[in-house]
C-alpha cells in the first residue's frame, strides 16, 4: 500500500494532463470501426498509469434491471472480471447500485470498511478477492447509462481526490463517445432506410431548386422518363427533356412555386414509351430563414388508369341512374295502373257487403277483401322496398303531435282486433314530449306493420302498445316502443331472420298466414333512418314483444294540464272494466289530474263500490263504464244505477270497443253524458271528465270533444262534396259509398269543369283526381287557389293512384290540403269529410223518397208517372207524423207502440217498393218486439238519415 501510494503521489500533474489529453484526442477521432480496440487500449493505459489490477465498463441493457460488460482490461497475472460477456442482473448488488445512482462516485479503500448494509457486496468482493474498488457512473443527458469499475486485488489502496477527479473527467469522454457513435449509427440507419424507401417507392419524388432546375430525384421519377438519377440531379429541365415536356413541366412548376404553400395539380406528359400519362403532383415548399423557397418537394402518382376507371364508372353511374329512373317511372306507372282497378275491387266489395247476402256469400266477400288487402300490402311493400334499395327514401322533418300519431295508429286496427275478440290498448308515458320533429307517416308505418302483425298472429288474448321516454340529449328524445301480443310466437331459430327482406318465420307454401315478408324488413330500415334499433323477444306459443326506439327532436315538451282539476279534491272516479290492463291505462291518464280513482272489474263490484262509499268522503261522482262486461253490460249497469237514489246523480261515461251510427243516441237514453271508443285516448278522456265537472263547455268550439259529448242529439251532417274523377268505375264506387252513408256529391270529369263548379258553389270537400285529360288536378287546384285568394279556402283532397316518393309533396305544393292514395280507404275518406264539413241547419227532404224510388215503383206496377207521383206525395205527407210517433214511443220506452208504428211504416214502404225504408223497418220492428232499446235507437236513427 505504501509503495503504491508513494508511486501515485510522486506523479506530476503534467503526467495527468498528458494522459487526459491523449485520451481526449484519441476519442475525438474514433469511429465505430476502431472504437472497441481504442477503448481496450485506453483502459489498459489507465490501469497501468494508476497501477490497478482491473478496469472495466458496464452498460445497462434496454431493461435497466440487467447490465453487460462492454469492455475490460486486467493485468497478466489477474483473471478477467467476466470470462463471458453476458447480461447480468443489477439487483445482485443492491447497496452498490443505490450508491452509484445517488453519487458522483463510489470509492472503497478497503473491503473490510464496507457498510453493514452491503451484505451481498461483501460476499461478492470476497469471492472475487477484491481489496479496493472505485465505481464512476456513466451518464447521458443526466441519465445513468452504466459505470466504470476500477479494482485492486492485491492489497487495499487509498483513492486520492485528484485521482478520482481525473477518472470522472475521463468517464465523460467514454459516455460522450458512445452516445455519439450510437447516434451516428442510428442516423446512418435512418438515411439508409430512407434511401431504400425513396428509391424503391413506386411514387415519384423530386426536389426543385427553382422553376426549371432539379436538386434531387428518386429512381421512380427517373425511370418514368427512361433515365438514371444522375441524369436528372442538379440538371436543368430544358437540358434533359424535349421542348414540349420541359415547357409543360416548367409551367406546372411555376404555378406550384407561385402558390408558396402545399398544393396539388395534374400534369399530362409522355413517359419514356411515348404514352400519354396523367401525373397527380402534390408539392410542399421548404423555406429558408428569410422565408424564401429553398426547395419545392414534389411527389407524383400516375393516375392514368384511375382516371380511365373514373370515366368508365361515371358512364356506368349514368347508365345506372338512367335505369333507376326508368325503374322508378315503371314502378310509378305500374302503381297507378294497378291501384286504379284495385280501387274498383275494394269499392265494389264494400258495396256488395252492404247488400242483403246469404252467410255463404258474406264469407266469400270477406275472403275476397282479405286477399285484396294482401295484394295491396304487397304493392305498397314492393314500392317502399324499391325506394329503400335505391336510397331514394326521404324522411320528412316536420313538427307533429306524437301522442295523436301513436293513438291514431292503434285506433286504425281496432276493427280487426274487435272482430277477432282481442283487447287492443295503448299506454303512453306522461313524460313523452307533446310535439316532436320527424316523419309522422313513417312512424305510423312502423307501428302499423307491428300492430297488424300482432293482430294477424293472435287468435285470443290481447295486444298492447307501450311508449316510454328514455333519455334526452341536445333536445333529442330517445323514445322506446313496445308492441306485445299473446299470439303464436316465433321459434328461436327464426328470430334472427324475420327482419330480412322476403323472410318469414313460416316459409312453407302451405303456411296459414300470408304476407310479403317485407314489412319487418322495411320497418327495420325505417327505424335505422330514425337513429334507432329494432328487436324482438318471443316464446313459441305464448306471444312476442317487438321493441324499437327512435330519436326525434323535441318540438314541444309535455304541456301543462289545461284543466284546473286540482280544485276538485273531493271528486272520486270509478273505472268499471273487465280488462285489468285497460283499467291500468285509464287510471294512468286520470292519475295526472290528481282526482281519486277507484276500480271495479264488473257491474257487481261497481255497485258494491258505489254503495259502500255512498255516505263517505269517497262517494263516487263519475263512473267510466265499459259496455262489454261479463254478467251485466254497460247499459244494464246504467239502468240499475238509475234505480239507486244516491247513485242517480253520478256522471256516466261509456266505453265501447267500436261505434256505429246511433250509439250516441242510445248512450244518452241510458243516462251517459259522453262516450269514448277503445283504446281510450288520453285527451278525449280528460275532455269528457272536464265537461262532466263543468270545467269545459260542450259546445261547438271543440269538434273533437263534441264528437263524444251527447248532451244534445244532432242530425247527421249533410256535406257538400265535389268529386273530380275521369274514371267511370271510380266515380261509380265513390258515389255509391257516399250514398251508403246518406250522402250525395256533384261530379265533374276534368279539372277545367272542377274550376267552374267551385266558382259556383260553396263545397265542404273537393276530392280531386290528379291524372285527368284537358286539365289535371294539379293545375286545376292552382287555378282554384288563385281565384279564391285570401277570402276563401275550399278543402281539396287529392284522390290519386300515384303513391311514389314525391307524390304527396307534389299535391301539397300545388295547393291541395291532403292526399288519399287509391285503392281508397273509405274510413279515412269519411273521416276527412266529417272533419271538414261545415255545420248547417238541416231540413228534412221527404221529396228525395220520390226521386230515388218512383222509377222502380213504376217499373214494378206499370202505373203512369203521374199516378205514381200522386201516390208517393200522399205517402210523404203521412211520414212526418209517423216518424214523430215512433220517436216519442222510443223516448217513453213504449216498445209495443214502436213495434205497431214500425209495422205500419214497413207495410207502406213495401207496397211502394221503397226497399231502403222497408229493410230498416224490419230490423227496427224486431228490436221493438225484443225490447232492445239501444237497437231501437240505432235503427230509428238510420231511418231518419234517409231523409237528410
From TrEMBL:
List of residues that carry Phosphohistidine: 903
Cell compartment(s), UniProt: Cell membrane
Catalysed reactions, semicolon-separated: ATP + protein L-histidine = ADP + protein N-phospho-L-histidine
InterPro entries cross-referenced by the UniProt entry: CheY-like_superfamily, GAF, GAF-like_dom_sf, HATPase_C_sf, HATPase_dom, His_kinase_dom, HisK_dim/P_dom, HisK_dim/P_sf
Domain Response regulatory: 572-693, 720-837
Signal peptide limits: none
Entry-linked Pfam families: GAF, HATPase_c, HisKA, Hpt, Response_reg
Enzyme type, top EC level: transferase
SUPFAM superfamilies, per database record: ATPase domain of HSP90 chaperone/DNA topoisomerase II/histidine kinase, CheY-like, GAF domain-like, Histidine-containing phosphotransfer domain, HPT domain, Homodimeric domain of signal transducing histidine kinase, PYP-like sensor domain (PAS domain)
Alphabetic keyword roster: ATP-binding, Cell membrane, Kinase, Membrane, Nucleotide-binding, Phosphoprotein, Transferase, Transmembrane, Transmembrane helix, Two-component regulatory system
Ranges for domain HPt: 864-948
Topology versus the membrane: Multi-pass membrane protein
Residues bearing the modification 4-aspartylphosphate: 626, 769
Domain Histidine kinase per the UniProt entry, residue ranges: 333-554
Domain PAC as annotated: residue spans: 263-315
EC identifiers of the protein: 2.7.13.3
Reported function: May play the central regulatory role in sporulation. It may be an element of the effector pathway responsible for the activation of sporulation genes in response to nutritional stress. Spo0A may act in concert with spo0H (a sigma factor) to control the expression of some genes that are critical to the sporulation process.
Protein name (record): Stage 0 sporulation protein A homolog
Organism: Clostridium cibarium
